[in-house]
Amino acid sequence: MKRSRLSRSKRAKRGGALVMISVLVVGLASLSVAMIALTNGSRMENRVSKQELAAQAVAEAGINLSYRSLASGGNGSIGSQQTPVAYDGADYWVTQANGLNQTVTLRSTAQTQDAESTVEMTVQLVANPLFQWAAFGDDALHMDSNAFTDSYVSNAGSYASQVSGSGANAYADDGGDVGSNGSILMEQNSKVFGDAVPGPANVATVLGNAQLAGSSTPAPDTVDMPPITLPAVASSGALVVPIGGTQTIGPGTVHYSQLLAQKNSTLNVVGPATIICDTFQLRSNTQMLIDATNGKVELYVVNDFLLNSNAIMRSNDYKPKNLEIKLLSDNVIDPDIDVDLNPDDLTFDSNSKIYGTIYAPNAKVEIDSNFELFGSVVAREIDLDSNSKVHFDETLLTEGPMGTPEYQRVAWRVID
Fold first, then answer.
1. What three-state secondary structure class fits 2?
2. 3-class DSSP state of 332
3. DSSP element (H, E) containing 53
């Protein structure tokens, strides 16, 4: 009887142990399942988190590409929700919306397999006038003895009505800045009533008693020189205005293989007009007179541009904004091409003058002694010879042609 009771006791103990082991096994199995689920969940969260970061990175890349499109003259839109652009494992599209005060809102959305991100940036167009200086030379700017710059406001009246002082100290305003992406050299007795702004890491050298009214601090960035786009118009041959004659052209667009106004002649141009010339020359005592009542005149010259003594180019209201001279000449590479504003041996009263803007991004422009420009000149390189004068028209800052668009960021955010 004792053995029987002992056997039953052992069997009971063995059964209890089996139950305990079974409970432990089930518990461990449940824990394992929970750990696996937790690990899988963590992996999923990590994957989603990585894809969210990836989507945001692609959305930001889309914003950058959109901004570059906007700054280069596009509208900033890229793809669409229906036709997104594939990039780095994600699809994205960018929309744009114009707002008040010349603002533009760009919204870039990127999608991966498990995530989506939207980035929004608002930018504002900043005025970037092409003509901001009396004279600007991309490579360099040189002012010879007695060369002179100042400024006036054509909308406020004539230059003469705004001059103060007398003799060598007479000038209209101190906005006659000169600039360069390279260096600036002011020779003895030259005068700049304004700033002389060299390019980054360059200097403005002011020799002897040269007079600089403003600052010579280098610019923080270089200035863009956008290329000239020549209108595609077939040539209608040469136009020659005979000695002492008068010719009227415009309005409209025309292309001449040669435009030559001979001595003592008058060329009348009715705006709006676009005139394209392979070569252009006004000989001594000629006039190019512009009727800008209905619009300005754009003059494109492909090769030689010659302006001889006592010539004058102006609009009926004498406002420089109404005459834009665009020179495609590349006389730095090809010295046989002339870009020569040369009133031989003339005095200040010679009336050899241009009221307008001159843009020659590929050319070296030499403005010779006693020549007078009302407006602005921007070229690859500029040499202002002795006694030449440039009077910058400050009206060009707001009413003249604009350069490469510039946008300033005013807001940026990530949209959940």
1. helix
2. coil
3. helix 2-71
Q: So where are the chain's domains?
A: 2-126+407-415, 135-399
pLDDT higher than 80, residue 35? no
Q: Is 111 left (phi over 0), alpha (psi -120 to 50) or beta?
A: beta
pTM for this predicted structure: 0.73
Query: Over the stretch 121-158, which tens digit does the pLDDT of each residue have?
Result: 999 887 778 899 999 999 999 999 999 999 999 999 99
Phi and psi at residue 176, to the nearest 5°? -85, 60
> Which residues pair with residue 123 across a beta bridge?
104, 409
CA 166 to chain centre: 38
Strand-pair category, 178-180 with 116-126: unpaired
Residue 143, burial from CB neighbour count under 10 angstroms (0-12, 13-18, 19+): buried
Give exposure, 162-175, as e/b (b: 16+ Cβ within 10 Å).
beeeeeeeebbbeb
Helix (H) or strand (E) holding 6: helix 2-71
Question: What's the CA gap between 388 and 348, in Å, rounded?
Answer: 9
Q: 212's torsion region: left (phi>0), alpha (psi -120 to 50) or beta?
A: beta
Sign of the Cα torsion 131, 137, 141, 143 reads negative
Residue 205: φ, ψ to 5°: -100, 120
Share of the chain above pLDDT 90, in %: 55
Residue labelled with tokens 């946008």: 407
Whole-angstrom Cα distance, residue 134 to residue 377?
6
CA distances from 237 to 97, 289, 304, 325, 338 (A): 47, 22, 16, 20, 21
* pLDDT higher than threshold 50 for residue 345: no
Continuous H helices in 248-343:
none
Q: What are 119's two structure tokens? A: 């980035």
User: What residues pair up with 148 in beta bridges, in sequence order?
Assistant: 191, 389
